[in-house]
Structure prediction request, 736 residues.
Amino acid sequence: MRLPEHWTLQLVGDSHLGASLPGLSRRANEIRRQDLDAAYRKAVRSGIDSNCRMLLYSGDLWDTPRPPAMDVLSAATEIRAVADAGIPVVVIAGNHDAGVLSGSVWLEHPNLHTVTRPRPILLESDGVRVGIAAIPFIREPASWYAALSQVAADLPPADVRIVLAHQAFVGAVCGAQNFRFRLGRDVVDPARIPPGFDLVATGHVHRPQILQPLLNGPPIVYAGATDRIAFTERNEDKGHARIDFAEGRARVRFERADCRPMQFVPLDITGLPSTKIVELVESSVAALPTDAVAEVRLTGQTTRDAVRGIRIGPRAAAVRDDVLVAVNFRSVQFIANRQARAQGIDCEPVYEHSPFDDPALRAAGVLSGVPGSWVGDLPRAPGTYVLRDGGGRVVYIGKASNLRQRVRSHLRGDSDHGYFGAWAASVKRIDVRVAASELEASIVEAELVRRVRPPFNRQMREWEDYWYLAPLAGPHRQLSVTRAPETHRFAFGPFGRRMSAAMVLDVVNRAFGCAQCPEHDPLQLWQGRRKKRPAKAANEMRLLAVQRDAALCDRYFAGDCLGPCAERTPPTEYEARCDLRDACLRGELDASVLDQLSITRPGDHARASDGDDLSGDSGVGDAVAWVARRARQLRQARALLSSVVHLPGGVDGRLSALVGPRGLRFHWTERERQEALGGEFSVVAVEPRMEEPEERDGPPIAVDAAQWTHVPRELVDPLLVLVRAAERSGAAGSAS
Prediction:
C-alpha cells in the first residue's frame, strides 16, 4: 500500500524518571525530578499537538525497576492520554525499568502496548499497516540476534516495518569525550539486522543521532534522552525525534528540548581556611548561568577541620536559589593537622621551577613555553608534560603517545577531559620532556605525580586509599584489613580501597576454609557502619550452634569455614589451609592448586557462584585466580625494590631508574656509554646497601628492601607498570 503524503511517528525514550544526581541536596534532587517529569510530559504530549500517527517509546521510562507508585501513575497518565487520543503507543522495557512494565494495571489500554519480551506487533493507523519487531534490552548480542531473527520471521506483511529496540549499536557516540561503541558485550552489529526493515528506532544511548544504513539497510535513529541525566551529557542536545515516511523513505528531524545548562566548577582549596573556602564557593556559584546545574569539584590538599561544618549546598542556595549545586570531594587529599603544620599548610609544596629540574630528566632536553601557537611546534612523539598556573604551581602532570595532540586537547577551551575540563584558562606555562618510549613517559609521569601530588591528578593518586591485609592478634590465624602495614610483622597487598581489600579477604578465606569470625569480619562491620548501627554489626551474623564454648556461625554451615573454633577439623589440616591462603596472597600458590579449588573447598555444598566478581568471571575459583595473579605481580613489584631498571634507549641516551622503598631515582646514560648496556628494556638486581648516598658518580646503588614485606602504596602503580613491561619483554625473571 502506498503511504499517505505525510505519515508521521514520534520516537521518545530514556526519560529516567526519578533519577537523582549524586551530591545534590534533597531539595535540589526533588527539583531535578520535577524537571525530568516536565521534559517527559512535554515530549509525549507533543505527539498529540503535532498530529503524529504513532508514538514509540524506546525504553528506560523510569530510572529504577521499583519506582514509587505515584511516579508510575504520573507517567502512565501521560501515556494513556496519547492512547485516549486514538494514537497507538508501543513502550518497550530498557535495562532500568523492565520490572515496572510487567503487569502494571495503569498501563492497560487498547491502544497501549507494553513489551517486556521480544514479540511482533501489527498495528494500523490512518490506513497504514505498521509491523514492529519489538525487542527490549538484551545484554548478550548473540541472544539479541536470535530474538530479532525469530520476531522478524513471525512478523506479518506490513506497509512499514520497524525494529523498536533499546540497545547500543556499533558506531553510536556518547559522552563528553565522544566515546564510540565498538563490537563487544552489550553492543550489537547493525549489519546483522535482517533485510526488509525501513527503520530501527532505538534508545539506550542518550545522544540524539542517526547511524547511516549499511548496504541499503535501514537508518538507526536514537531519539536521545528527554533531558540531561548526568554531567557527562552536559554538552548534548536533548529532546525527541519525529520521523516522516513518504515515498518509501524515512526523514528524521529532532525536536530540541529546553534543558538546564550543566557545568563543572573546579576549585583548588589547598591551604585555604574555612572562611576562604566559603568565599571561593560563593563567588563561583554567583557566576553560574541562570538555572544551571553545577558540580563543585574540590581538589587539592587540606585538613578535615578546614571543611568540617561547611554546608556548601545550602550556602549555594542562599547565594543563587535558581541553580542546583552538587559537591564532589573525591579529588581532595585530606591530611592530618600535624602534617599540615609540618608542611606550613596552609599550602602544599610549590615548585618554583619545573619538576623536570632533576638532572637525569633534564639531560634528555626539556621544552618550555606558554599556551598558544608554540604548542603546534611540539613533536608528535611520546613524552611527559607539566602544566603550571600563573604562580608557577604544578596543577597537572601527564603523559602522551603524541605530545602535540594531547597538550592541545587539554588547552582547548571546550576541553572535557574529566576533572580537568574547566582548568584550561588557569594554565600559563607548559614544560615538556620527550621520551624514548611510551614506557619511559609512563614511569616518569608516575614518579613525578608521587613527588609533586598535583591537585588534578586524581586517578594517579588513587594509591592514597590503598589497603592491606595483615595478621590479626588472636586465634585461628585470622587476617584483617589495615592502612598501616608497617605496624605488623608482615602484610599482603595492597588490594585497592578498603572494600576491595575486604572482598579479597572474604574470597580467599571462603576458598581455603579459613576463619573469619563475625566480630572481625570487615564486610559485616562495614555494612554495619553503612547502616549506622556499628554496635550491632557483629551481632547481625546469625549464630547457629554452640560447642565447647565456641559459637559456630553460618560461614561454617555454608561450607566457607573449617570451624577451628569448635575443633571441627584437625589442627594440622587447618594450618595447611592457612598456609595455602598465605601462599596465594604472597603470589606463590601453585597453579595446580588453583585448578583444584572447586574440589578442595570445605563443605559438601560449596557454591561456585558465590564468589565475588573480582575478575569479571563467576565462581570462587575464578576470583581466587584473580587474587593470585594480582599477588604474583605484587611479588614481582616487591622484587624490583632492589633493582635498577634500564628503559629502552633513545637517540641521545638512555634513562635508568633505581627502585627503592622511598621512590624512583633516575639516572641518565649518555649515548657513548649506552652500547655497553644495550638498548632494550632490562631489569638488573644489584647488591643492596642500607643507605642511599646523597651524591655519587656512576650508576645508582639499590637500597636494602629486605625488611619490606609489602609494596609501599605510593610505589604500587609505577612498579606494576614496570612488572607488566618486564613480562612482555621476558625480563621479569631477572628481578625475581
Observations:
- The chain has a mean pLDDT of 78.
- The longest strand covers residues 324-334.
